[in-house]
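Hey team,

Filing this mostly as a record. A colleague (T.K.) asked me to run one chain through the structure pipeline before their review meeting, and I want the input and output archived in the tracker in case anyone asks later how it was produced. No errors, nothing strange. Just documentation.

Input sequence:
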Amino acid sequence: MDARIAPLPRARTWSSPKIELRPGAEGLGVFAVEAISAGEVLMAIAEVFVEQRAQHTIQIDEHRHQAGTGEIDDYLNHSCDPNCALVFDRLELVALRPLVAGEELSFNYLSSEWDMAAPFRCGCGAAGCMRSISGFRWLAPAEQDALAPLASPYLRQRLAAERTKA
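Output structure:
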């Protein structure tokens, strides 16, 4: 881990000098400005929590959501085939594979939201695009299982509980 990352809790988001905020196909996005290695920490998101979900929050547990910070982390776009993932216990964004300069960073919003506050139609173009991004709970069981390795601990626990009830 990079020594420049502030210890938890963080009042501000730290971002790697290898990424920047700039215009992209879907408005503002976060882009690599140089090569990035798989597993590299690209952001350490500020700990700003709210109780209610909203369009730009990230669900941590049932009543705890990471709020928008007004910083670079607010501009991460969705992809059904993401190149980054959130490490939820540290609120860090890591590269899932090597990235090249100019590539937009993305994560799968379904990996963090049981039920989206603002569902949307996806046009990411990935071969396995889900098309409708409504929340993890709305995925077919096989889709949930495929996404589970990237899903938050809360979503995995909730899925197990839901399946136990069934």
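Quick notes for T.K.: The longest helix spans residues 153-165. Residues 11 and 46 are 5 Å apart (CA to CA).
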